[in-house]
Amino acid sequence: xxxxxxxxxxxxxxxxxxxxxxxxxxxxxxxxxxxxxxxxxxxxxxxxxxxxxxxxxxxxxxxxxxxxxxxxxxxxxxxxxxxxxxxxxxxxxxxxxxxxxxxxxxxxxxxxxxxxxxxxxxxxxxxxxxxxxxxxxxxxxxxxxxxxxxxxxxxxxxxxxxxxxxxxxxxxxxxxxxxxxxxxxxxxxxxxxxxxxxxxxxxxxxxxxxxxxxxxxxxxxxxxxxxxxxxxxxxxxxxxxxxxxxxxxxxxxxxxxxxxxxxxxxxxxxxxxxxxxxxxxxxxxxxxxxxxxxxxxxxxxxxxxxxxxxxxxxxxxxxxxxxxxxxxxxxxxxxxxxxxxxxxxxxxxxxxxxxxxxxxxxxxxxxxx
Length: 369
Ligand SMILES: Cc1cc2nc3c(=O)[nH]c(=O)nc-3n(C[C@H](O)[C@H](O)[C@H](O)COP(=O)(O)OP(=O)(O)OC[C@H]3O[C@@H](n4cnc5c(N)ncnc54)[C@H](O)[C@@H]3O)c2cc1C
Known about the structure:
19 strands; 3-stranded antiparallel beta sheet; 8-stranded mixed beta sheet; alpha+beta; binds flavin-adenine dinucleotide
């Protein structure tokens, strides 16, 4: 197994629990890649087409099933999600989405301002708010304590976990993995959950360039990077739900903080520190306009982090043509999807029939994004 983000750690835990002998290779420490900074919003709120919506909805349910068995109080936050629309056209879009999601058996309701204020006393409602929706089945995860527990579960079932240079995959030859430390790991199957680095590993294993098509992430102007701010301290009343407004996403974060993201924060891995600092201050200002409890808050941390984003915005999962012994799994919405995807992947890899649910996401399947 290559990569111990939320997806790789989930797959490793499932495979090890199924009796497979797993070696989990991670170039850093587990959970320090994209998964560490994710908003980690569990949702299938605006996902198309219908099978991809259903896959994400199954993802939300899979975490609910796993939580009681994996110390969920440390990482599982099924708190619900409030979305506020500020203009008439945003309200129209929100109402249409709620109607569609209801038809798709997904919990979604329009609520009035008094209900929203009662649900989330920390929210400063725009005056007047155009519309508010409540998605009670959604929530978020704390990925660091989660990944710690997934890796511990894999270890408890006999997995070896190698990190740093010992775990950094430098070459893949004839089903053997060579690490940067010079050791060789033999495997019947190499499962690659290396997030945005997956295309590089696929090429190391002999696949043609472009076999794992991701949205570019390392060039100036690339759209895969996102910007995350952690701000605090939060005083009373503290936000308890995940909230979206048209210009901000926010949720509680451990340590009395809020995690913030803005859809228009155009940053990439080349953005200057001065510009990042400017954006961080802007997100804090927006948060102070959106919720109470941030009167004494400052920016505690900010980070540019990169979405592993398949070109169609969905997932790529399966054995990679042209790459010996390599099974890849790379996806956007990886936090929502990991519990369910890992179950499907582990079933396939332990002799089950190819999953019909995964059929649309096989490498090489042409899809319209
Ligand atoms: C700003 C932002 C917000 C997001 N919000 C959401 C959200 O609200 N909900 C949601 O579901 N998803 C969200 N996502 C997406 C989600 O976070 C990712 O899909 C998910 O974290 C990917 O997990 P992963 O395990 O595939 O990748 P990663 O967490 O990046 O893990 C990959 C691992 O592979 C390791 N690796 C790479 N190369 C090698 C090598 N050569 N040898 C050994 N190890 C290697 C890396 O070190 C890393 O630890 C968001 C992403 C971003 C950036």
